[in-house]
Amino acid sequence: VQLQASGGGLVQAGGSLRLSCTASGRISNYHIGWFRQAPGKEREFVATISRSGASTYGTDSMKGRFTISRHNSKNTVYLQMSSLKPEDTAVYYCAASVNVQYHSGSDSLYHSWGPGTLVTVSS
Predict the structure, then answer these.
(1) Residue 82 and residue 42: Cα distance in Å, rounded?
(2) CA–centroid distance for 58 within its chain
(3) Beta strands in 7-116 (DSSP E)
């Protein structure tokens, strides 16, 4: 499967963005995770969602602000981000997993990393 993240852009602090991750193949075959990498920092886990969408996992720092969802019939997974902060500035990536431990957020369990989308939050 090939994945493509989109929807990034420039937004003011406190604003919102919705990122989309679109698959070339059948996205319902995969758990999908969102990760991000800020300048000069390592890639970090943001959120992940099970194949059916019944289970979602995210980091404590992003709970209440970021929501992951999916629409399998549209072959798309979304990341709704609100109350954005300058420290959310990063390139955001989506990736696929078939590993039962996908919810750990370890990026080594994910594959099919597509080009990311840049989110810039101005103060």
Answers:
(1) 23
(2) 10
(3) 9-12, 17-23, 31-37, 44-49, 56-58, 66-71, 76-81, 90-97
